[in-house]
Each structure stands twice: as C-alpha cells, then as structure tokens.
Write a structure and sequence with these properties.
Methane Monooxygenase Hydroxylase, Chain G, domain 1, about 350 residues, single chain, 2 domains, 13 helices, mainly alpha
Length: about 350
C-alpha cells in the first residue's frame, strides 16, 4: 500500500460528519465561550469551550458519557496540578511530575482512557496557565462544568432522530437472506447438485454471520440514540419489536448454516431421490415464506399461499439406511426454525 494512501486513510474518514452534528458542535462551543465569559469574567473560558466541543456527540447518551468523563478528568487534573504547583512552585520538574502523577492516579483508579487523558491535559494546563492565581483551580473546574452542561443541553435539545429505518433495513435484509438460503436448501433436496455447488451454497450461507453482525450494530446504534432523546417514546415499541425479530433471526442463522453444512458434508448425489426429500423441501420453502412475512418486504417478494405456512403436518417416510443421520439432523433443525418463526412476537 502506498505511503500517501495510508496517510490519507489515517486522517480522512470514509464520509463526512453529518452537518447537523457540525452545527451542534459549533453552537455549543460558541455558546460556552460567550456564556461562561459573562459568568466568570477574567481568564478566557478555554476550558468551557473545549468541554462543550468534546461533549457534543452523535447521540445524547454519548454526550452524557463525555460530560462525565470531561468533568471528572478536569477536576482530578486541576487538583493534581494545583497541589504540585502550590507545593513546589515553578520548578522545571513540576510539569513532568504532574504528568506522571496524573497517569498513575488514573491507572490506580482504573479510569477510562478518556478520563485519563483529560486528567493529564488538565494538570498540564493548570500549571502552564496560572497556578499562582488565587482561586484559579476552582474557577477552571466551575468553568468546565458550565461548558459541559452547555454541550449536554445542546445535544439533548437538538437530539438527532433515532435511526430506526437503518436498523429495520438491516434486520429485514438478514431475514430475507435467511429465507433465500432456505430456498436454496430446498432446491438441494429437489434436484441433484455437484460438490462445487454445495460448497458454494455453504459459503453463501456463512455470509449470514456478517449480516447478523451488521444488524446487531445498527440495533445498538438505534438503542443508544433513545437514551436522553425527547423523541424516544415514539420509537421505543418499534425498536423492541425489531430487537425481538433480530433475536429470532440470529438463532435461525445458526440452524440454517448447520443444515447447509450437513447437506454439504453428508448429502449424497441422489439426495433428491430420498423418499423424505419432497416433504423436507416443502417445509423449507414454507419456512422461507413465513420469514419473509415477518419482515417489511414488499408484497411482491412474498409468495402467495392459501393457508399459513408451517401449519401442515410434516409427514416423513422412513429414510434410507445411509441417510437417516442427515434426515434426522435436518428435521431437528427444522423444528427449531419452526419454533423460532411461529412463537408470538
């Protein structure tokens, strides 16, 4: 990889920050500078502006976490820096000693990296900007708290919409791909497939795992956006249903991959001739049908059926002696898929 490309990827994001987030950060920073300067005249409100800037995050919950980190880190750092400065004055070794002390303090208390870094930065700033000024340390702590409150207020007041649509899209995509995998399995029980085709079927089924992870990540982002969000009540029920659906799909992913692997490993060339294969193929297609009904897929993606799927009893003829283990394994997994689909939401 060229050095220039690696450097560019290190400093540039895949996409720009949302303009709303940029506007919130600018508003919070400017408001913290103006308001704190009016409340605490004298020193420029640097701590307040930095606090407000760092606290504004994509969600109000993340902003609240940053506010706590910032306030705790500044309080600890100012206390450490002020204590060393008042005790030893402006000796050249005071700042290095403050850095080491702040790092050890954060390590002993098992503080997060954000709090640890803020503690060190605050200790350095308080020593560099005015430890000898009476009341300076206390004023900087108050200033930081004001900036944190302003940043948090802006984040909550201008909270972004909850990304329910993205979460639903990811969950629906997972459900539809599971249904497609079940259809491919049904095809394997209906027609003869080569070893290469069965291997490709298994590789495709394994792609359900990253899709499940993507859906889980989208759900976590949507759930996180609910905290301290004024719009939370209108989305809470939707996200609860999506979470239940994702849990169902996650369990089915395991069963579907297992069934596909079993067919790849143990399925004979004449699997379609097995007496039980037509009934199993029918149940696989019915399971795929019902999975599509659980998603928000358009009506034309759901095959018409006069009666609900998976309601007809599965009648299996005695499998041949060489395939009884495979058929039994498929039936067990089918039962689990059936249970996951038909359990009430």
């Amino acid at each position: 990889m060229p050095v220039s490309f690696r450097f560019a990827s290190a400093v540039r994001a895949d996409r720009r920050l949302p303009l709303v987030l940029l506007s919130k950060a600018a508003l919070a920073t400017v408001a913290a500078w103006v308001i704190t300067g009016a409340i605490l005249p004298g020193s420029p409100p640097v701590f307040a502006s930095i606090a407000a800037l760092l606290i504004v995050q994509p969600s109000a919950n993340q902003s609240a976490t940053k506010a706590v980190e910032r306030s705790v880190g500044v309080t600890a750092g100012v206390a450490i820096g002020s204590s060393l400065g008042l005790a030893f004055g402006t000796q050249p070794w005071v700042v290095p000693a403050a850095i080491v002390t702040a790092l050890l303090f954060a390590w002993i208390l098992r503080m997060t990296p954000g709090v640890s870094n803020q503690t060190v930065i605050s200790a350095i700033l308080v020593l560099a900007l005015g430890v000898s000024t009476p009341g300076y340390a206390g004023a900087r702590i108050v200033e930081t708290i004001i900036g944190a409150l302003i940043g948090l207020t802006v984040s909550v007041a201008l909270a972004p919409t909850v990304p329910v649509a993205e979460a639903r899209e990811r969950v629906d995509a997972l459900g539809l791909e599971i249904a497609a995998t079940l259809d491919r399995l049904a095809e394997a029980f209906e027609n003869k497939h080569s070893a290469q085709e069965l291997e490709g079927m298994l590789l495709t089924a394994r792609l359900l795992r990253p899709m499940r992870e993507a859906a889980t990540t989208a759900m976590k982002a949507a759930t996180d956006a609910l905290t301290l969000n004024p719009r939370a009540p209108r989305y809470r029920d939707q996200l609860a249903q999506l979470q239940d659906l994702l849990e169902r799909f996650s369990g089915i992913v395991i069963q579907v991959i297992g069934m596909t692997r079993a067919v790849r490993d143990h399925g004979p060339d004449d699997l379609a001739r097995e007496p039980a294969s037509p009934a199993i193929a029918e149940q696989l297609r019915r399971a795929a049908h019902d999975l599509r009904l659980l998603t928000s897929a358009p009506d034309d993606m759901v095959a018409p059926d006069e009666e609900p799927a998976l309601t007809r009893p599965l009648q299996i003829q005695t499998p041949s002696s060489g395939n009884w283990a495979l058929i039994g394994s498929i039936l067990v997994d089918l039962r689990r898929v059936h249970q996951a689909i038909t359990d009430p939401l």
